[in-house]
Design brief:
This protein is α+β, with helices and mostly antiparallel strands. Helix content is 39%, strand content 19%. It is built from 30 helices and 32 strands. A hairpin with a 2-residue loop joins β26 and β27. α24 runs parallel beside α28. The radius of gyration is 34 Å and the shape is globular. It binds one RNA strand through α10, β9, β13, α14 and β28.
Length: 832
RNA sequence: GCCCCGGUAUCCCAACGGCAGAGGAAGAGGUCUUAAAAACCUCCCAGUGUGGGUUCGACCCCCACCCGGGGCACCA
């Protein structure tokens, strides 16, 4: 007895509920990971007869380990992917790394090593983290854009684009980041600063490679209409703004012995043009200026060059400019107007020259005021004369001082009339302009795709033959990579000096590398056949999987990556390699994870370490927290979240699986209200996932857990409805918390993996309620409730409502004027 | 300056134009425990940023404004 006393004491200690009624998070994770590795439930089968779905999430750059942002986007993404899987689709859900780029190069310089060292070490770290995070990726399709097997095809595509005239080289002023020592695309300059490092961008005149994305401006714009329903509105709007289509006219002015064409959206105000302005940094200005004015002009240009974009773009700044000393002839009036140079006119938009109509354009008016130039109103809008008010008028009005336009009062008619006249006289034409510029793709850095071009003194630019691809990077490391203003590749003599593929004579390789956005413009295609060796992708497999049914990622790529990827897809469509024009059928942009109301940052010291959170609460609880936090698009303030609460809920759900006492398969019948709750939950969950309202879906699962708990505690552990509900909980939970779901599934007597089960079914009849509680309002205020059959007629409901004692009381002494009946839920009695 | 999104309980968030509360967190009390944690039970908590309008009825639609977040801004 003594011995057994001791035993029981120990047992009591062991049987502490905190040990017995909770699962060991770390042990469950350790248990299932190898099982899933073995079973590969998410391996996508190209040959499957099932309908295919492609779930794509933006691949990461390998900087360090995964952080909260990755955790959020993949948790949300995985809900959709796992849902489709349960719905019976063959799902392609791949992952890889956007592994070329500057951080690796900077780390290599710091640590005196090769950029690949940093890159591939981080990839391995992130890969392990993704594995533990249990996202349903098909790892057999993993790719890295820095692998020669991948960038071989990036180079191939570049050459194909070039053959189609879509990749070309030109000398032009370009954005230069003095910190990163490389040029930048327009899209990478945000408010005059480098999008990557924040340094102020300056201008340089350089010969660089461009993709002719402007050829596709109209197509890129047109197709946005189709995406409106399934893409976030802000992304569509951002792209529309970025493409910036405008309709207007080219008008030819004569300056001396040459023609200068201007672009205007208001040709109808041509009679009010009182001067012309040419972009100060355009060649045209230097060509037009008189010798007398040249010193003043050159001083001005010098001043403009020095000013940063930030200064230039400030709208507060007074207008500056210089008189070029020449006059231009207005083609419709024959009038001579002065020609000025100014920096408010941009060299690379339109024709780089404008006709200034100060009365009807605020910028021109500001300039005219600054330099005492005349203001002539030609559209009378009824507002005060801009020459007096200094407020340009831009609305509709009647034309004055405008020759044949006088008497008209409609802007559209005025514009059309002038364009017709210009065309008849051969001095202008209607035209369309875009804000979008060609995509500058050269970068003066090492860790990127080498541009497969050889420069030959005899043959000029010569393509590296396709059979020589990939053109691999030379082996440079450490100090070799220090930015010097030219690409580090230029110093690799053995690599640079080659014989011309055409004439065999001495020639030099192009030493720039490609913008990493080129790499990511087609990776989603590569996933369809990641090991294909006869081209960038297997066209049949791309046809089978693409376009992506959902693309989940950050809204920061609204223009950059998404516009480029769309451009690539359109070109490939024109090349006949793909049969669709848009790569991403639908899109979901998640918010960001912040902490204490602020973006996480080192300087604020408010960073939340993902690894520590996973360690403390487990993968499932962290994922659940992120999904449950709110609508996916909203930012999540981690300080407001309770991963501990998430874990508590998961424990609660898990406990159900241990309380079920019926045998597997015992799922029909039982507690009717629980059956109904289960049916309703499954029905709603599908709708909620499809409309991306994952947080509400989780709340519904919580409700079902609560309902099931109640039945069990009331003695229903053996009830078939309890088993059915618990199995449903496990399956629904598997979209968010795969470990505990798998564990529950096993405890319920089933084989793994739960990911390969199918979406729970239910009897439709359970969704139909027999009776409904109808609300009776008097003057919009609830005064009573009546229980009625769900299919009650309006008349019967009204009768029942009016018979209700509480309603009778509320109606005492009042005259019923009208009764609104909305069977079976509501009656509103209006008195009067 | 222009455009978009949001503002519901102490907090995060739900509510086909029809009973403002689904879910969670926090808080209070209780059961259990030597105690604590956990679990379970109970309770507390707003009339929906402000002011108008439409409607039988408005968190929801319309107008104006306030606050917060985001985007665009010398592109002619």
């Amino acid at each position: 007895m003594r011995e057994s006393d001791q035993m029981s004491e120990q047992d009591t200690f062991r049987a502490d509920p905190s040990e017995a009624d909770r699962y060991d998070v770390a042990a469950v994770q350790a248990k299932w990971l190898p099982v899933w590795d073995e079973l590969e439930p998410f391996k996508a089968d190209d040959d499957s007869a099932a309908e295919k779905r492609y779930a794509l999430t933006m691949f990461p750059y390998p900087s360090g380990d995964l952080h909260m942002g990755h955790a959020e986007v993949t948790a949300l993404h995985d809900v959709i992917s796992r849902y489709w899987k349960l719905r019976g689709f063959e799902v392609l859900n791949p992952m890889g790394w956007d592994s070329f780029g500057l951080p690796a190069e900077n780390a290599a310089i710091r640590n005196d090593e090769h950029p690949a060292t940093y890159t591939y070490a981080n990839i391995e770290t992130q890969y392990e983290s993704f594995k533990r995070y249990a996202v349903g990726f098909d790892w057999t399709r993993r790719l890295h854009t820095s692998d020669p097997e991948y960038y071989r095809w990036t180079q191939w595509l570049f050459l194909k684009f070039r053959e189609r005239g879509l990749a070309y080289r030109k000398l032009a002023p370009v954005n230069w980041c003095p910190n990163d020592q490389t040029v930048l695309a327009n899209e990478q300059v945000v408010d005059g600063r480098c999008e990557r490092c924040g340094a102020e961008v300056t201008k340089r005149e350089l010969s660089q490679w461009y993709f002719k994305i402007t050829d596709y401006a109209q197509a890129l714009l047109d197709r946005l209409d189709d995406l409106e329903a399934t893409w976030p509105e802000r992304v569509v709007t951002a792209q529309r703004n970025w493409i910036g289509r405008s309709e207007g006219a080219h008008v030819d002015f004569v300056v001396g012995d040459r023609v200068v064409t201007v672009y205007t959206t208001r040709p109808d105000t041509l009679y009010g043009a009182t001067f012309m302005v040419v972009a100060a940094d355009a060649k045209l200005a230097a060509e037009l200026v008189t010798n007398e004015q040249r010193p003043a002009y050159e001083a001005y240009v010098e001043q403009v060059r020095k000013a940063s974009d930030i200064e230039r773009m400030s709208t507060e700044r007074p207008k500056t400019g210089v008189d070029l000393g020449v006059t231009a002839t207005n083609p419709v009036t024959g009038e001579q107007v002065p020609v000025w140079a100014a920096d408010y006119v941009l060299a690379d938009y339109g024709t780089g020259a404008i006709m200034a109509v100060p009365a009807h354009d605020q910028r021109d008016l500001d300039f005219a005021r600054e330099f005492g130039l005349p203001v002539r109103m030609v559209v009378d809008t009824g507002e005060e004369d801009p020459a007096v008010s200094f407020v340009a008028t831009t609305g509709n009005g009647s034309y004055v001082n405008s020759g044949p336009l006088d008497g008209l009062s409609d802007k559209a008619t005025g514009i059309r009339t002038v364009i017709e006249q210009l065309q008849a006289d051969g001095v202008g034409e209607g035209t369309v302009n875009f804000r979008l510029r060609d995509w500058l793709l050269s970068r003066q850095r090492y860790w990127g795709v080498p541009i497969p071009i050889v420069h030959c003194p005899t043959d000029g630019e010569v393509a590296v033959p396709y059979e020589e691809l990939p053109l691999q990077l030379p082996d440079l490391r450490g100090a070799d990579l220090k930015p010097k203003g030219v690409s580090p590749l230029a110093a690799a003599d053995d690599w640079v000096n080659v014989s011309c593929p055409q004439c065999g004579g001495p020639a030099k390789r192009d030493t720039d590398t490609m913008d990493t956005f080129v790499d990511s413009s087609w990776y989603f295609l590569r996933y369809c056949s990641p090991h294909f060796e006869d081209g960038p992708f297997d066209e049949d497999l791309v046809r089978a999987w693409m376009p992506c049914d959902i693309y989940v990622g950050g809204v920061e790529h609204a223009v950059l990556h998404l516009l480029y990827a769309r451009f690539f897809t359109k070109v490939l469509h024109d090349m006949g390699m793909v049969d669709f024009e848009e790569p991403f059928a639908a899109q979901l942009n998640q918010g960001i994870v912040i902490n204490q109301g602020k973006k996480m940052s080192k300087s604020l010291g408010n960073g939340v370490n993902l690894g520590a959170q996973l360690e403390e609460f487990g993968v499932d609880a962290v994922r659940l927290t992120l999904v449950f936090a709110g609508p996916p698009e909203d930012d999540i303030d981690w300080a407001d979240m309770s991963p501990a609460g998430s874990l508590r809920f998961l424990q609660r759900a898990w406990r159900l699986s241990g309380d079920v006492t019926s045998a597997p398969g015992t799922v029909d019948g039982g507690d009717v209200s629980l059956q109904k709750a289960r049916a309703r939950t499954v029905h709603d969950a599908a709708e909620l996932v499809e409309s991306h309202r994952f947080n509400v879906m989780v709340a519904r699962v919580m409700e079902l857990v609560n309902a099931t708990r109640k039945v069990i505690d009331a003695g229903g552990a053996a009830d078939p409805a309890v088993r059915a509900a618990t199995e449903t909980v496990a399956q629904l939970l598997s979209l968010v918390a795969p470990y505990v779901a798998e564990e529950m599934w096993e405890r319920l007597g089933h084989q793994p993996p739960i990911a390969r089960t199918s979406w729970p079914t239910y009897d439709e009849a359970l969704l139909v309620e027999d009776t409904v509680t109808a609300v009776v309002q008097v003057q919009g205020k609830v005064r009573g409730r009546v229980e009625v059959p769900a299919d009650v007629s309006d008349a019967d409901l009204e009768a029942a409502a009016m018979a209700d004692p509480a309603v009778q009381k509320a109606l005492e002494g009042a005259t019923v004027r009208k009764v609104i009946v909305r069977a079976p839920k509501l009656v509103n009695v209006v008195t009067g």
